[in-house]
Specification:
Elements: H1 21-26, H2 46-57
Length: 71
């Protein structure tokens, strides 16, 4: 089972990323993690990307259920 944690941090040009303390407290003390970094290249499409991400994580709509029988 995986747990997804999302947060924003500032890039400073260094080799490390600061993780907010409330996020650190929600993570296990040991183990492995997969890190995905999404960088704002164009702030105009930030709202679109956030909506697309929420949609991606949400369940399929009732209209899409017709495709379930083909999988």
């Amino acid at each position: 089972m995986t747990k997804t944690v999302e947060f924003e941090t500032d890039l400073t040009g260094g080799r490390t990323l600061d993780i907010p303390s409330e996020i650190v407290g929600a993570l296990p003390s040991k183990g492995r993690a997969t890190v995905v970094v999404m960088v704002d290249l164009d702030s105009d499409d930030k709202a679109w990307r956030q909506a697309a991400y929420r949609q991606f994580l949400s369940d399929d709509s009732a209209e899409d259920a017709v495709y379930d029988k083909y999988c």
